Structures are given as C-alpha cells and as structure tokens.
Amino acid sequence: MLQVGAGGNVLDGWLNTDYQRHPKCVFLDITRPLPFETSTLDLILSEHVISTLPKESVSRFFQEACRCLRPGGILRVSIPNLTGMCRLLCQPELGPERERIVRRHQQLFRAGEAISYCDVFNDVMHLWNHQYIYSEDELDAQLRQAGFTEIRRANCGESIEPRLCKVECRPDPEAFSPLNLIVEAVR
Question: Which listed residue, 31, 114, 118, 174, has the most CB atoms within 10 A of its CB?
C-alpha cells in the first residue's frame, strides 16, 4: 500500500512518501517513473496531491500507478472539486451551504478575518499551490486514458475496500464535502 504526498498523515502499514522531507516518509517524486515493479501494489492513496502538479505530470502518474497496481488494485484520489466549487458560486439557492463552508474555512484557516466565498475559492486555488483543478468528468477521462477500467465516486472516510476507509486527513471533511472530489479507480 503506497501513499503519495503523505505529509503529516502517516498511515500505519503503508509506505508513506512525499516530495518534501517529513518524518516517517520516504522521498518520492511522482512526476518520475515509480520505483516499483509492474503489478506489485494493492492500493495507492493520493490525497490533495495531483492538483499541485501540471496536468501532463498527472497523466504520467496515472499511467505509472496503473502499471504498478495489481489487477483489481485501487488508486484512491482526493482533490478539490471544480464542479462543486462552481456550483456553490453560481447557484443562489445554495447560499446557506456556501455560508457554512465560508464560516468553517474562516475558523480553520483565516481566524479573525472577514472573508467571502470568493476568498475560499481563491484560497483553494492558491494557498496550497494548486496548479490544475479537476471536474469529475476531466478526472474520469484522465484515469480511463491511463488504463483504469472502473472509476467510482467515494465519500470521505468511506470505501468498499476496508483498508481505504478513514484514510483522509482533511480537516472537517463533512463541512467541505461539496468542495472535495474523491474517486477510486480500479485497474
């Protein structure tokens, strides 16, 4: 089981990797070929990592992940959800949900500041060095092009694969669920 971009979310029993130096993490640059034999991994977890890479690098990572996973292996990807962010911005009837997200974002990341949903949107785009934000359709197309045969939507903390349950470390996942896109791609 491989976790890419683990940062401070070190999972027991996983090979936890990151591009930055973190305790209990092995250095791994996922823009390069992965250093694993073909069909040797059961699971790969990528939580809010691929959106920090150029689209071309993500395409190569998906191909490498597909190569390294055993048949039936799963790549779990969690990223900001472009469609969800736009829906909250453009649909006035979602105002109460948008305000709830603004308040929670403010508590977690901008204490004491008066912020708007536009601030939340821009924070998602820029504070965490995101380079490309995906819609579900765009992510699905990239995963299928890389060779994944089944792609299913997942909720934070939930999976049909028990080892993928409760692996995310995002703060207050329920509050931010409209802004997150989680999929599991099966080889």
Answer: 31
Q: How many domains does the chain have?
A: 1
Distance CA 132, CA 54 (A): 6
- Segments forming the whole domain that contains residue 44: 2-82+129-186
Percent of all residues in the chain with a pLDDT value above 90, rounded to a whole number: 71
- What single DSSP character describes residue 15? E
Taking phi over 0 as left and psi of -120 to 50 as alpha, with beta for the rest, 14 belongs to beta
pLDDT tier for residue 164 given thresholds of 50, 70 and 90: very high
- Spatial separation of the C-alpha atoms in residues 54 and 34, rounded to whole Å: 17
In contact, 170 and 156? CB cutoff 8 Å: yes
The first and second tokens of residue 160, run together, are: 């049909």
d(CA 13, CA 16): 9
In a domain, 115, yes or no: no
Looking at residues 28-41, what average pLDDT do you find?
98
What confidence tier does 178 reach under pLDDT thresholds 50, 70, 90?
confident
The string of DSSP codes covering 59-99 is HHHHHHHHHHEEEEEEEEEEEEBHHHHHHHHH-GGGHHHHH
User: pLDDT tens, 35-81?
Assistant: 999 999 999 999 999 999 999 999 999 999 999 999 999 999 999 99
- 18 lies in some domain: yes
